[in-house]
UniProtKB/TrEMBL annotation:
<dbReference type="GO" id="GO:0006178">
    <property type="term" value="P:guanine salvage"/>
</dbReference>
<keyword id="KW-0660">Purine salvage</keyword>
<keyword id="KW-0328">Glycosyltransferase</keyword>
<keyword id="KW-0808">Transferase</keyword>
<dbReference type="InterPro" id="IPR000836">
    <property type="entry name" value="PRTase_dom"/>
</dbReference>
<dbReference type="GO" id="GO:0052657">
    <property type="term" value="F:guanine phosphoribosyltransferase activity"/>
</dbReference>
<protein>
    <recommendedName>
        <fullName>Hypoxanthine phosphoribosyltransferase</fullName>
        <ecNumber>2.4.2.8</ecNumber>
    </recommendedName>
</protein>
<dbReference type="GO" id="GO:0032264">
    <property type="term" value="P:IMP salvage"/>
</dbReference>
<dbReference type="GO" id="GO:0006166">
    <property type="term" value="P:purine ribonucleoside salvage"/>
</dbReference>
<dbReference type="GO" id="GO:0000166">
    <property type="term" value="F:nucleotide binding"/>
</dbReference>
<dbReference type="GO" id="GO:0046100">
    <property type="term" value="P:hypoxanthine metabolic process"/>
</dbReference>
<dbReference type="GO" id="GO:0000287">
    <property type="term" value="F:magnesium ion binding"/>
</dbReference>
<dbReference type="InterPro" id="IPR005904">
    <property type="entry name" value="Hxn_phspho_trans"/>
</dbReference>
<comment type="pathway">
    <text>Purine metabolism; IMP biosynthesis via salvage pathway; IMP from hypoxanthine: step 1/1.</text>
</comment>
<dbReference type="InterPro" id="IPR050408">
    <property type="entry name" value="HGPRT"/>
</dbReference>
<feature type="domain" description="Phosphoribosyltransferase">
    <location>
        <begin position="9"/>
        <end position="160"/>
    </location>
</feature>
<dbReference type="GO" id="GO:0004422">
    <property type="term" value="F:hypoxanthine phosphoribosyltransferase activity"/>
</dbReference>
Length: 175
């Protein structure tokens, strides 16, 4: 997979600015909480989560959950697999679930069902990217970085078969 097949969709600067805005918005909306348990959806959400928590004014605990529905393909398999070795501890906690992309809604819906089964005090969802035209399951994020068209994207944590996560921007992959 080469970078000549990439077309920048969202610049690193725009991402940086929006992450700062999201941190301020979440901090304002959830002000008064003693602590926020931030649950990062691995692998794609790790860069976004790391940048976002640096801009939250609420003390955080960070947990991880691993979910996959793509494998090495560009389309969701329709089956969401959760890695239960990464079960976050959310019972009685105020939770902010951080996801890289909300597209079909299958993964987010499955994760929310799982986390709600552990009785959090509150649950909020923040996604870097929202692709509403791809939605097949009715689910919505409380906080969204950018709404994008139904294109395959990589960079800033998102990958194509495990590659291109390191890009500081989000790009479409035309290959």
């Amino acid at each position: 997979m080469s970078k000549e097949h990439l077309e920048e969709l969202i610049s690193a600067e725009k991402i940086r600015e929006r992450v700062i805005e999201l941190g301020a918005e979440i901090s304002r909306d959830l002000a008064g909480l003693d602590e926020l348990t931030v649950v990062c959806v691995l692998k794609g959400g790790f860069i976004f989560t790391a940048d976002l928590v640096r801009h939250l004014a609420i003390p955080c605990r960070i947990e991880f959950i691993r979910a996959s529905s793509y494998g090495t393909h560009r389309a969701s398999s329709g089956k969401v697999m959760l890695d239960h070795h990464h079960d976050p501890h959310v019972e009685g906690k105020n939770v902010l679930l951080v996801e890289d992309i909300l597209d079909t809604g299958l993964t987010l819906s499955r994760i929310l069902d799982e986390l709600r089964g552990h009785n959090p005090a509150s649950m909020h969802v923040c996604t870097l990217l929202d692709k509403p035209s791809a939605r097949t399951t009715p689910v919505k994020a409380d906080y969204t970085g950018f709404t994008i068209p139904d294109v395959y994207v990589v960079g800033y944590g998102l990958d194509a078969a495990g590659k291109l996560r390191e890009l500081p921007y989000v790009a479409t992959l035309n290959a």
